[in-house]
Description:
Helix content is 27%, strand content 29%. By secondary structure, the chain is α/β, with parallel strands linked by helices. A 7-stranded mixed β-barrel has the order 1-3-2-6-5-4-7. A 6-stranded mixed beta sheet has the order 9-8-10-13-12-11, with helices on both faces. β12 (212-215) and β13 (218-223) form a beta hairpin. α2 packs across α6. The longest helix has 22 residues, at 227-248.
Amino acid sequence: MIKCDFSFAGSVRVGGRIYLGGSDVFPEGCPYIKVSLEASKLRAGMKLSSEGTELLRIVSGSWADQVPGAKTWVAEVLEPLPNSGSLDLKTERVGFSVAYVTLSDKGARGEREDTGGPLVGQIVSDTMAVSIVHGFLIPDEYGDLKSLLMNLAYTSKFDIIITTGGTGVGPRDVSPEATLAVIEKRLPGFERAITTAGLEKTPHSMISRGIAGTLGESIIINVPGSPKAVKESLEAVLPALKHAVEKLQGDLSDCAKIRSV
């Protein structure tokens, strides 16, 4: 349970976003929900409910500027919030949280539509239970990707992080290098499966250098940028992905369910 004080929530509508955190981390007049220390257990995709009614879904996490060590959360409002007072909300994980990161200089400048990234969410959601899909479109910058991966894994705590694009040998292809700089355990079986699937379609797949590995309780996978390659790559690893995430997060049984907190 997480104690939530709605005295400062204002009138955020259903479908809108609201901050969760301590009273000393937000500017005056900013709508927020004051939460107890148990909020440290939150992670992207979790739902907060009261008496069976789901009120909030966690979207992402961040660190507050004003107070050292203070963490805040952004949540989507699912139902009308109380006008005031405190409630003990139950936290629940139903499905996996998925973040995709599309690397494209042209896309980041608005010169190309991102079709590969949204396809990630669609394909994963069609295969397993998913609690939230959150997408990012950034330029092919090593530092940007490296910092974003660490934020998604350690701060927001997404279960699955898929990057699209930047896996080739061009001068701006930096996805493998940025991923190698942050992962803790490499998953060569995932890499081989993606390469094998690609080679069944074209010999050009042998120059794709995608990396897969773990960071905290997250699994990160690089796939090429074209929608066709995204589909082929994900289909190669999806049969093992759910089980891999469960094992990474501490499940001891062969086919464990996601636990409620």
